[in-house]
Amino acid sequence: MFEPDRIRRWAIVTVLALLLGTIVQGFTATKTWAVTGNRDRSPSLAAIDPLVLGAEAFARDDYPAALTAFATAADQATTPQGRAIAYGNRCRVWLAVEDWPAAIGDCDRSIALQPQQSAAYLHRGLAWRGQKDLVRADQDFSQALQFAPTDGRAWYNRGLTRAEQQQPLAAIADFDRAAVQFGHGALDSLAQVYYDRALTWLDLRNPSQALADLDRVVRHNPTQSAAFQVRGSVLQALGQPDRALASFDQAIALAPMNGPSYVARGRLHQQMHCQQAAIADLECAARCFYDCGDLAAYQSVMIALRQLQSSRTAIG
């Protein structure tokens, strides 16, 4: 049975976790923060508000400027709620640069000032997860859900954490709730939920359910090459080589420098007794790995390539 690549999964979901935690409810400062500030601020005053300056800096990936602006906002805040907002948003910047201890510290400060805010628990959970402290991450995501039970981001990230804690059934349940909350208004997020639920179905040795979710992924987000690659491997395991080949072809068309897709298609070609096509795929994989600097993968593919070439010569 096909085994999902856990390292690849971590790379994918770390990016998404930050997107869900930082961008979806991110720095829409004049809208999200208006309820905690002065609704009557003039445009000239809003333009120099350090919260707004921090949001603008974050939007253009100027993280040092964002950190400075939010530090200023915390210093200038006249209420505990204002300082909580500044610390909470500086936490998001620390998440973006993957400084997990700093993110946890700012979330702690924000929670101490304003205890019943789900976003701070959500973001601290992301930081705990970044440090591989899955127990604390689970606790914070659960606390976030106590305050905001309709937050799809918290359901999704807790599902990831439970999958990594070898609790696949609990993870599936959380992904189910995340899918309901995201609905069809955020198709990219919904597609990612289906993708990770598919990997969890594979943990449970249920390729049929995994395939159903992967079909949903490529329908909602037809540009996700990783989903086509995994889908191809599942179809191959289910004895559907033609559909598997088409899925691998699409994965490669979307990401032509992705070595693992060539390796997967090469294995399928070998299984289909298309030796020349298998050799061509492994040669492409070797070039991809070499160009990307993954010498261990390059050497592994070269060994397989030589064995395949020797086998073909012997048969001929």
Write the layout of secondary structure elements.
Blueprint lengths: L5 H18 L5 H4 L10 H6 L1 H10 L3 H14 L3 H17 L3 H14 L4 H13 L3 H14 L4 H13 L3 H15 L4 H17 L3 H14 L4 H13 L3 H14 L4 H13 L3 H18 L2 H21 L1
Helix pairs in contact: 1-8, 1-10, 4-5, 4-6, 5-6, 6-7, 6-8, 7-8, 8-9, 8-10, 9-10, 10-11, 11-12, 12-13, 13-14, 14-15, 14-16, 15-16, 16-17, 17-18
Overview of the molecule:
The chain has helices at 6-23, 29-32, 43-48, 50-59, 63-76, 80-96, 100-113, 118-130, 134-147, 152-164, 168-182, 187-203, 207-220, 225-237, 241-254, 259-271, 275-292, 295-315. The chain is an all-alpha fold. The protein is elongated.
Short description:
The protein has 316 residues and is mostly helical. Helix content is 78%, strand content 0%.
Tell me what portion of residues adopts beta-strand conformation.
Answer: under 5%
Helix content: over 70%
Name the poorly predicted regions.
Answer: 1-46
End-to-end Cα distance? 31 Å
Oligomeric nature of the chains: single chain
Overall outline: elongated
Calculate Rg over CA atoms: 23 Å
Q: Kindly report the average pLDDT value.
A: 85
Secondary-structure element pattern, one letter each: HHHHHHHHHHHHHHHHHH
